[in-house]
Write a structure and sequence with these properties.
This protein has 4 domains: 3-153, DNA polymerase beta, N-terminal domain-like (DNA polymerase, domain 1), CATH 1.10.150.110; 160-247, Beta Polymerase, domain 2 (2-Layer Sandwich), CATH 3.30.460; 261-328, DNA polymerase, thumb domain (Beta Polymerase, domain 3), CATH 3.30.210; 339-566, TIM Barrel (Alpha-Beta Barrel), CATH 3.20.20.140. Helix 1 runs antiparallel to helix 2 (23-37), helix 1 (3-19) crosses helix 7 and helix 20 (447-459) packs parallel to helix 21 (484-494). The chain has a 5-stranded mixed beta sheet, with helices on both faces. Strands 14-15-16-17-18 form a 5-stranded parallel beta sheet, covered by helices on one side. A 3-stranded antiparallel beta sheet has the order 8-9-10. It is 45% helix and 14% strand. With 571 residues, the protein is an alpha/beta fold. The structure holds 2'-deoxyguanosine-5'-triphosphate, calcium ion (2 copies) and zinc ion. One calcium ion (CA) binds next to helix 11 and strand 4.
């Protein structure tokens, strides 16, 4: 069982305790869930290496919780959880994925209106019962209505960041199979698209039956839709569907190209082939019966007179024209970031100390990070005031002396207030090395007002970065109404950096805005928004998004060494 699955069970237990009025237990389970979700190492491995004792050394995990983890790892189940689910037959998975639905809302909805599912929730909204509940009202109703609508739009699409770790494991397992000559995860996952509809695995083998047996009986498979010699289709326990195609070795490159897509990109290539009197399909590029290319993707592109196009760019958005005239951008490489400019710690809603975050960042290969805890007007996150920020700055200076070959920068994630001013005074901000500004409230202002608000914040000479610039949460919350072009232009004019937030449900800026920012000549950075040590791995998804936005390393300021990075900031 993986950390994400264990964490989900504890999160659900925390909601059940909330329903029973056991506030302290609820909080303990919630903390454990977040700790496990963000822990840098699998609980499975911690337990195997050091037993219960090792589990208990993790902050937030005591005797009772460690024993529950043990039960889950050993039996795959937890008796207490099964009992609670019978007691409260609520579809927590779906309900909690609606923006604005947390434990307290679930409790009230269940107790007062017997809401157990999204359908129930829609019904009580339609009947006008919801808005009559104390503490709900029209505004909350509106929020939930929007949340449900969004949930439906995104239905069936999975966040790349959540799906990819398991898909990579499966890919590695296929690759290790003795009858497999080559294996690759293709489709939208290879293009690093922010959400994926299904997973497309591709294998080259001359013993396809063995591979199909292996694939359809993997431990993650909960249903086999179809099983054949060249194609099988299964459902994984996460709910995601997965295809497997098997081709001969000499067709592997052509099949990789075909099954990576996207469809429009493929159609354009096929048209180019036809114009030369050739035929392009998943088995190769053919002149009559003769295969002109097919073993590698490069062969296919070159045969069509194109430079090789990176998967993240294959969306038929102009990349083919650039490839023809040899002008493709040299995309930023995975693993090339040196710093991370948005990191939260246990000063606010992060789970680990400054030092733990710094050491974890260093371990992943980074050279510096900025500590950017929340500020005071974000009450739910325990935001810091001016005095607490000054104290943190002193702490950082001290910790910096203990860690070699690494630099912790002082910083803050300040809130942009309704009128565009900030919730921390300029004198304090001036003392900090990296200041990011965020919208965390009033998401529903009219476009003009929202734009004016953000422009004003960006004009502040102390604001170095605009964090998660459009505020969207994928499958959960739409971006706020804002004139993105005006914001990008203002960032360019003021030397403010636009963030590409790599957190899996944010990926904000999104690809098309990244392209726009580069076109305007604005500066960009890629941040993990880490709240736990495991979250530095999210940087990869930010790089993927940047590549989808055609960014080179020159466009991304935190590919620079720390001294040069600091020089790019506003004076
Ligand atoms: P998804 O799964 O919705 O996130 O998106 P994809 O891009 O993974 O699409 P999917 O799974 O339907 O198909 C996988 C790849 O197969 C796709 O990227 C391109 C290729 N493909 C699918 N349908 C067609 C088609 O009708 N013509 C051509 N040439 N290629 C196709
Ligand atoms: Ca797919
Ligand atoms: Ca597919
Ligand atoms: Zn936070």
């Amino acid at each position: 069982m993986k950390n994400s699955e264990i964490a989900k069970i504890f999160y659900h237990l925390s909601i059940f305790e909330e329903m029973k009025g056991e506030v302290f237990k609820a909080r303990a389970y919630d903390k454990a869930a977040r700790m496990i979700e963000g822990y840098g190492k699998e609980m499975r491995d911690v337990y195997e290496q050091g037993g219960l004792k090792a589990l208990q050394e993790i902050e937030g995990i005591g005797k009772a919780i460690s024993e529950k983890i043990e039960e889950l790892l050993k039996t795959g189940k937890l008796r207490l959880y099964e009992e609670r689910k019978k007691e409260f037959p609520i579809d927590l998975d779906t309900l909690t994925s609606i923006e604005g639905v947390g434990p307290k809302t679930i409790k009230t909805l269940y107790e007062k209106l017997s809401v157990k599912s999204v359908e129930d929730l829609e019904k009580v909204i339609a009947e006008g019962k919801l808005r009559k509940l104390p503490g709900f009202g029209e505004k909350k109703e509106q929020q939930l209505r929007k949340g449900i609508e969004f949930l439906k739009q995104g239905k069936g699409r999975f966040l790349l960041g959540h799906a990819l770790p398991t898909l990579r494991e499966i890919e590695a397992r296929l690759m290790a199979h003795p009858d497999v000559q080559a294996a690759m995860l293709c489709g939208s996952a290879r293009r690093m698209k922010e959400t994926i509809g299904d997973a497309d695995f591709l294998v080259a083998s001359d013993k396809p039956d063995n591979i199909m047996d292996f694939f359809t009986t993997m431990k993650e498979v909960i249903h086999v839709y179809s099983k054949g010699t060249t194609k099988s289709n299964v459902k994984l326990e996460s709910g995601l569907d997965a295809d497997l195609r098997i081709v001969p070795r000499e067709s592997f490159g052509a099949a990789m190209q075909y099954f990576t897509g996207n469809k429009d990109h493929n159609v354009a290539l096929r048209t180019m082939a036809i114009m030369r009197g050739w035929k392009l399909n998943e088995y190769g590029l053919f002149e009559g019966e003769k295969q002109v290319a097919g073993k590698s993707e490069e062969e296919i592109y070159h045969a069509l007179g194109l430079d090789y196009i990176q998967p993240e760019m294959r969306e038929n958005n102009g990349e083919i024209d650039l490839a023809r005239v040899r002008k493709l951008p040299n995309l930023i490489q995975y693993g090339s970031l040196r710093g991370d400019l948005q990191v939260q710690t246990n000063y606010t809603d992060g789970l680990s100390s400054i030092e733990e975050m710094a050491l974890a960042a260093k371990k992943t290969g980074l050279e510096y990070l900025a500590i950017t805890d929340h500020t005071k007007s974000l009450g739910v996150a325990g935001g810091l005031d001016e005095e607490e920020i000054s104290r943190q700055v002193k702490d950082i200076r001290r910790i910096n002396q203990r860690i070699e070959e690494f630099r912790i920068l002082t910083g803050s994630e300040v809130n942009i207030l309704k009128e565009g001013s900030l919730d921390i005074d300029d004198k304090t901000l001036k003392e900090l090395e990296v200041v990011g500004a965020s919208v965390h409230s009033y998401f529903d202002l009219p476009k003009e007002e929202q734009t004016r608000r953000v422009l004003k914040a960006v004009e502040n000479p102390n604001v170095d970065i605009l964090f998660h610039p459009t505020g969207r949460l994928i499958n959960q919350r739409a971006p706020y109404e804002i004139d993105a072009e005006k914001v990008i232009q203002k960032c360019k004019d003021t030397g403010t950096i636009l963030e590409i937030n790599a957190y899996p449900d944010r990926l904000d800026l999104k690809d098309e805005h990244i392209r726009k920012a580069i076109e305007f000549g604005a500066k960009l950075c890629i941040d993990s928004d880490a709240h736990a040590t495991a979250h530095f791995q999210y940087l990869e998804f930010g790089i993927g998004q940047a590549r989808r936005g055609w960014a080179t390393s020159q466009d991304i300021v935190n590919t620079l060494p720390v001294d040069r990075f600091l020089k790019t900031l506003k004076a």
